[in-house]
Amino acid sequence: MSPSYVCCLLNTLDPEQTGFIAVENFTSLAEHHELQLDPSKLEMLLALVQSNEHGHVCYQELIELLNSKRSSSFRRAIANGRRTLQREILLDETGLGVYKRFVRYVAYEILPCETDRRWYFHQSRLCPPPVFMAIITIVQIIVFMCYGVMLNKWVLQTYQPDFMKSPLVYHPGHRAQIWRFFSYMFMHVGLEQLGFNALLQLMIGVPLEMVHGILRISLLYMAGVVAGSLTVSITDMRAPVVGGSGGVYALCSAHLANVVMNWAGMKCPYKLLRMILALVCMSSEVGRAVWLRFSPPLPSSGPQPSFMAHLSGAVVGISMGLLILRSYEESLHKQCSWWVLIFSFITFLLFAIFWNIFAYELLGVQIPPPP
């Protein structure tokens, strides 16, 4: 909506320039369909003005809605409004195309509130598409296939010295090469690890990205990846790291924690059974990683990849992810808890940097020679 139209609209609704819009003036104008708004937005505007106890609505609430922005005050006004929105259950919508049906499915999978589901459903656009998780998964598959063809081996490739020579793998002997702390997410030790990560990324990451956007989900995923390698460099100092499990577990734990925190509002089918299956699969993957780490290695092979990236990714998901997924209605930079979390992550990052610079020599850690 153009600024000139908004200015003209405000002058019409508030001719005395008081900074507030009288409820009766706005309601009369809205009910006569003089506002150039889609029906769902007009419906929410009417609920907003009719829920106000002071008989007026401030400019900011109106402008935020006209510009498709959600605020906490607007959310509370809708939730507590005296006017009941029509078609409260989004599942009652009929005559939808394939894309809109998928958007409705995503809304019920991710969002715990019916008002939020309807808002997302009406505001959802095909562009931009959820490209981040798709690109990450495609690159991981391509890299795995290239190394599989080159080494002629598709399972437990860490036993191959040429696999560990890759410039993408994190190895404690190469920790000065900073890019390895996140590039390791493109390498996988076998088809089972790649398949597990790719499946979860697409099943959970794509719907999350559709709802919360590429910026928030990429931030959550990359934070899990970086936290995974940094945690390994502190707690398992002799081990290499491969695979995108840190980012995957950040996504999964954030989504599962959000479902638990909003259990009554989540309407996804068979949520208890799906929660149990997800926990069993994730626990099995962690158990497999622990077994590989401490099982006797083959002759001439070094330490096996660490499992600490899985656990640190889960911690990142529960802490940072819950905040990101909870704040669908508001901007992150407006929340005090967001800045506390950012400060904590920066503190951990600085500690990990100094640890990697000084601790290895001070503690006399015997690092296996890099390939």
Give the secondary structure arrangement, pairings included.
Blueprint: H1 3-13, E1 20-22, H2 23-31, H3 39-50, E2 56-58, H4 59-66, H5 72-80, H6 98-110, H7 114-123, H8 131-151, H9 161-164, H10 180-183, H11 191-235, H12 245-261, H13 271-294, H14 308-326, H15 336-363
Antiparallel strand pairs: 1-2
How large a portion of the residues is in β-strands, by DSSP E?
under 5%
Q: Structural class, from helix and strand content?
A: mainly alpha
* Helix content class: 55-70%
Order of helices and strands: HEHHEHHHHHHHHHHHH
Number of helices: 15
The low-confidence runs, each spanning 5 or more residues with pLDDT under 50, are 76-87
The termini sit apart by 59 Å
How many individual β-strands? Answer: 2
Mean pLDDT: 78
Major beta sheet, strand line-up: 1-2
Shape: elongated
Major sheet summary line: 2 strands, antiparallel
Assembly form of the protein: single chain
- Rg, nearest Å: 25 Å
Report on the structure:
This protein has 371 residues and is an all-alpha fold. It is built from 15 helices and two strands. It has a two-stranded antiparallel sheet with strand order 1-2. The termini are far apart. It is a multi-pass membrane protein. InterPro entries: EF-hand-dom_pair, Peptidase_S54_rhomboid_dom, Peptidase_S54_rhomboid_met, Rhomboid-like_sf, Rhomboid_IM_Serine_Proteases. It catalyses: Cleaves type-1 transmembrane domains using a catalytic dyad composed of serine and histidine that are contributed by different transmembrane domains. One of its GO terms (molecular function) is serine-type endopeptidase activity.
